[in-house]
From TrEMBL, chain A:
Similarity remark: Belongs to the CCZ1 family.
Species assigned in the record: Vigna mungo (Black gram)
A GO CC annotation given for this chain: Mon1-Ccz1 complex
Domain CCZ1/INTU/HSP4 first Longin: 12-121
Listed InterPro entries: Ccz1 (IPR013176), CCZ1/INTU/HSP4_longin_1 (IPR043987)
GO-annotated biological processes: vesicle-mediated transport
The name this protein goes by in its record: CCZ1/INTU/HSP4 first Longin domain-containing protein
TrEMBL record, chain B:
Stretches assigned to the FUZ/MON1/HPS1 third Longin domain: 426-539
Superkingdom as given in the UniProt entry: Eukaryota
Biased composition (Low complexity): 45-54
Any Gene Ontology biological process: vesicle-mediated transport
InterPro entries per UniProt: FUZ/MON1/HPS1_longin_1, FUZ/MON1/HPS1_longin_2, FUZ/MON1/HPS1_longin_3, Mon1
Similarity-based family: Belongs to the MON1/SAND family.
Span of domain FUZ/MON1/HPS1 second Longin: 276-357
Region of interest: Disordered: 1-63, 80-107
Biased composition (Polar residues): 33-44
Pfam families (alphabetical): Fuz_longin_1 (PF19036), Fuz_longin_2 (PF19037), Fuz_longin_3 (PF19038)
UniProt protein name: Vacuolar fusion protein MON1 homolog
Native organism: Vigna mungo (Black gram)
Amino acid sequence: MGVSSNESIQLCIFDLRRGQNEGQELDKILFFFPAGFPFSKQLSVIGLSEALITFTRIFSPEAACEVIEAELHSHVFHEAEPDIWMVMVVEKSNDSEPIWGDDALRKVLKEIHSLFVMFHGSIREMLEKESSGGLTRRHLYSFIMDYLRACKKQSPWDNCCCGNGEVAVSNDFLAGKKLLLPSFRDSLKERGTVQMLTISREAAIEVQSLARVLESSAGNTLCYSLILFQDLLVSTTLSPADTINLFTYAVLRLTPHALSSGSSSWSYVRKGITASNAASESNMTHPNSMSESFYGSSDISSGEDDYYHVVRPLQSDKWSKGKDGYLVTDLWGAEVGTWVFATPTVWLQQTGEKMYLCVYQHRSLTLMLMIPVSSVPNGEQGVAEVRQRIIENASLKILKVEEKLSKGWGGENAYHVSGYRYLLVDGDRNVSRASPATKVTTLTKESLLAMNKLRQEVELEKSRAKLDRCNFEKDLEICVRAKNNAWVISRVTRGKELYMVLEKANETLLYASDAVEKFSDRYAIGVLSLVWSIVFFHAQITILIEKTIFSLNEKVFLKNLEDFGLYFYSFFIWESKILLPKKL
Amino acid sequence: MSETSSSAHDPEPPIRLNLPPLSPSLFDAEPSELQQPNGSAVRNSSDPSSPTSSGYAAEQGSSTATIVTQVEEVLHNEIQEITIDDPQPLSHSSRLPGKRHSDEDDASISWRRRKKHFFVLSHSGKPIYSRYGDEHKLAGFSATLQAIISFVENGGDHVKLVRAGKHQVVFLVKGPIYLVCISCTEEPYESLRGQLELFHGQIIVILTKSVNRCFEKNPKFDMTPLLGGTDLVFSSLVHSFSWNPATFLHAYTCLPLAYATRQAASAILHDVTDSGVLFAILMCRHKVISLVGAQKASLHPDDMLLLANFVMSSESFRQDFRSIFSCLLATVQCFGISDDTYLMLLTTSSDAFYHLKDCRISIETVLVKSNVLSEAQRSLVDGGMRVEDLPPLPYSGSSHLGQHRLPSDSPERLREPDCGIGGAAGLWHFIYRSIYLDQYISSEFSSPINTPKQQKRLYRAYQKLFASMHDKGLGPHKTQFRRDENYGNYFFVLGSVEGIVLLCWVTQDFELYAAFDPLADKALAIKTCNRVCQWVKDVENEIFLLGVSPFSW
């Protein structure tokens, strides 16, 4: 829209505070994909977006433009930071897989941004540091291109164009390949959520104890940990938002599966991607020299340029497992004058702290430890000491936990419930669980389209309820019998969402709602609340107690529990008395 | 004007955005020294020293300074430069007296906070109609809409919808006429688009399609004068978007009448259709008493809706009971017969005035002699189907619509455990649409749907359900059950959170939409729906116009 071309997708980021004077419009643009797009067209996309943002604010000052639907294109908007907008333009192809949910696309934009912020800090801060914006553009360009590559279908191409990057990076990437975006086939999936492993209580206690050992390895500093088994989360002590970011990154780059890309081992995410929709990446226009220098794309190839070091954390095949079990990467460069790779760092959203990220892997188990940079005065050496201490203190526990989890692991179809194709989302904690992707693909296109449509409807209702700022969370149940006789069902209650497709079901509504009832009773409530009560709570309680241990009294403790959304599980603490200090 | 032309006629190729600038300062809180007491500051646009003189609401060398406006019509002499600083508290502007709030413009907070705007503009950006505010004052705004539409069209695409928070901006391009709806009513896109289609249809009913030809001859053709005095027609149409199910069901409804009475009316109408009249429609308010068409003639229910709306809301109809207007398909002549009843005769020949007059006289004479008019009047008083009257057993009585009202203390009445409010099993309301008759019947509102607000909310819930069932790509779904604990947030006021259960059935023959108490039992609700269908079938010769097939497609 607004741009006549064969581009199937455009993605741009622009800053409304920049380039306000005539002749300086280009300064607004912080990122544009494809980079080879003529500037006139880039400006036309951004100009239309800007105009509609201003226009819609006339009527809706609190929520500006979210989406433009035109006959042939959708423009999806996301205001990532104040006045910094991300806009994705996708072509509505009339081929076999035409349907996009603008909400799903917006989640892609959100994911890109929050990952970026995790590694680089906010765009605004970066821009404030250098008025030209050149460094920011370089960072965004390399980061988003790496991200898009990560979203692509696995192919031999990956390895050849994402390595240590020649100039070719800017020219050939994605050439002739498919860029994957969420489609209706992903309607039983939820981006921006964490998938969890269900574990027994004994295992949970072991995991908990392991997390404590990990976090105490750095002495008295407050560390955070994240433990994954395969591509599933086992334990976290981070806030939900940080958990999602690190989980997403781990599944993209760190888990055993991610390390051995191309292997056929099971993964929620990977399987999902292969079943995903694909938009063909058609424009092979080589960026002209102008846009190359504009985005600095010709410079970023080596991960380092003349002036700045641009870290590219999403570059693939950059992580490998060392002999000591730790994952290492040269993505963050090396200590000056040594061959020691610098330890990766991340920014935590909740605390705003910069943390060292140490990743240890034993078979299917991936442990991530975040240590505040400020608490390690002697830099790499200090981190190395912590790593050593972990090996000394936790090795045995790690072996034990891995063994226990492997035994209890039900395999790829562990969470399949026969007869049902479902997605469960806990919006409060950003956790989801779904039927295995291989099972979802057995559904007919009609059913998935109907589910996709239903989800869009529910999303709209949810966002409106949110805008009403009423305290009433949406409580909604919709059962639709589609044209192909499948039942497509959605249930939203107190922040929990259940979506379900029943294809071989009896035709009566009562039968369908019975089936849902049974499922919720047995799985939805059971599974999810158990998972949370055990895993989240164990992990977060530790933090809580460590944070409040000196000022602890019952009231404060319960208040904090509530803050973590754990109030209802508190009975479990009293009962098990695992972690409670004697004072209580 | 003069100071705007430099930017309005930029010779550059359209590298930059060709939209009229919208000022970010719309939201600035800086007070303007030129503010008028009424809050909307009006500056003299001919003052070249004014910092805001760069164009429509663009100012202070801000973002918009670089944006080039291409639309020359934007900046008429008549347009006042507007700054949007409005220091008034929001509450102050909630409701203003006056039918169309013509004192408002896009600078007024009150105008911006209207729940639903309708705009009609010409393809050159000239305002033709605005539901609120003075069209002339909205010329700049209108040009903005035009610019958005044509900017997208220049890219080979067509803009359909823009969504921002609770607001939706829906666009419809009909040749040289652009229609835009800006609404925060939570109505689905499909419904809003349908409303714009009807809006356009109403314009065509009034002005005929020759309007398009006028635009062909003169792109700057001003059709506003032609629509003079038709405000009532449009406001009545817009009003019907929030109460008349015909606007989204694409079906018409009949006045409930005994079969014999309707037969008699049809017989009377039938006589005139043999004499060159294409259609004879006898209506009572928005409901059809009878309708007779010549063979092979077809009339869409939407056209009937628009004709009825025109007649019902026209001053002329009220005054001299006669109105001639031509629409796309035929010349229509309309006669008022009584306060609520009127006759519409459609013919293709344009010189049939006297003939139609004769027809009308003959029909009127017979009608007055028969009992049709008095029966119609009685039916108006009695009303239609009521959920309280839903017969528990297969209906066999002969009373009006099977209303067998029982004394309130009758034990039979108490047999239904859930009938404390509304009908059986918590049934509140229903709409039944017969697919091949193109007709629907809607039950009367009963407790607890008492207030107009509640009725509007229910209407919107049906509308949403209809859109959800009739997705274009997926074809109609078969069944839908929807329980919403707080539906229609739009009307959300503290303490009035209300839930609802909606059930919808779409079969080859009919569609049923039913609303229940949120606590209604699913099984009972389904049974009740079956009873409703049975009930409707039992009384169908009273509530529907049978035996005619006016719609021959």
